[in-house]
């Protein structure tokens, strides 16, 4: 979007977590990093320099976090960047922030944002880090319940050649979810009117079923399909996200996170962990509303990020041990562990 540029080639670049044997905060320098990470930092510096060259930027660097300091220092001393800064006309301040300093933000569910939900719940487009697969079967006469149907190529979110779709994506990113869904309906109604499709405009709350019924009007009109293909992909992504079981779980997460923030203030960590215990269920006991093993890992990352430094003591150690046992049992009982669980185990 106009305000956000992602560098997917570097999606895996994460600061090393401080742990036994890892580089401590004192040993900050490119040489202290593992070879793979060193290469990734150099690649990032090269990419940023190319980006700033295209924008004609002369930058001042600021850094928050150990890895960010290394990146900022490398960029400052990078020979092509020094040459560029001598001739560039536009000034900018660049702030680097370590991703690990805001894990609570990355795993929290506080954003009332449709774009965030779409990117979180729909499956990733193969080979892409920042785009998703949109199931296009609804636009065809092929009616199948098979979710893995691969006869119809998936749609996606990137629609650079469709002005209406680009405008709608901006509103998905910048408006609250309710307003963004109303925008989706408005764009759809305008497109249908332009194609003289028999659309009945309704007021009030927008439901995924209502959007689906509007989308079906385009199905037998190839010219209308072609003219508004990008827009239809974004609206389909909206419908599939709103109907997705993970979206209803989103509200459960949010409720639990809010409850947790209150509890943390009043009581201590062991009681919070004890609250989690009965919620850890193995595969055979789980219903679709229960948390999966991954959901628990996300919750735990959130809890420990919000709490910060904790002193180890008997009661806490005992509560952690119980939680570990329950989680390990649940992970071992998974009939088909997800790629993430396989990587962890």
Structural summary, described in words:
With 345 residues, this protein is mainly α. It folds into 3 domains: 8-101, no CATH class; 114-243, no CATH class; 266-344, no CATH class. It is 54% helix and 5% strand. A two-stranded parallel ribbon has the order 1-2. Helix 1 (35-55) crosses helix 2 (66-77) and helix 11 (245-266) runs parallel beside helix 13 (293-307). The chain is globular, with a radius of gyration of 24 Å. This is SCFD2 protein. InterPro entries: Sec1-like. Residues 1-21 form the signal peptide. Keywords: Signal.
The tally of helices reads 15
Shape: globular
- Assembly type of the shown chains? single chain
User: What would the average pLDDT be, to the nearest integer?
Assistant: 87
Our measurement of the CA-to-CA distance between the termini, rounded to an integer number of angstroms, reads: 37 Å
Q: Over the alpha carbons, how many angstroms does the gyration radius reach?
A: 24 Å
Domain tally: 3
Query: What series of H and E elements makes up the topology?
Result: HEHHEHHHHHHHHHHHH
Number of strands: 2
Give the amount of beta strand, in percent: under 5%
| Uncertain runs | none
Which class do the helix and strand fractions yield?
Answer: mainly alpha
Strand order of the largest sheet: 1-2
Largest sheet: 2 strands, parallel
Q: Helical percent range? A: 40-55%
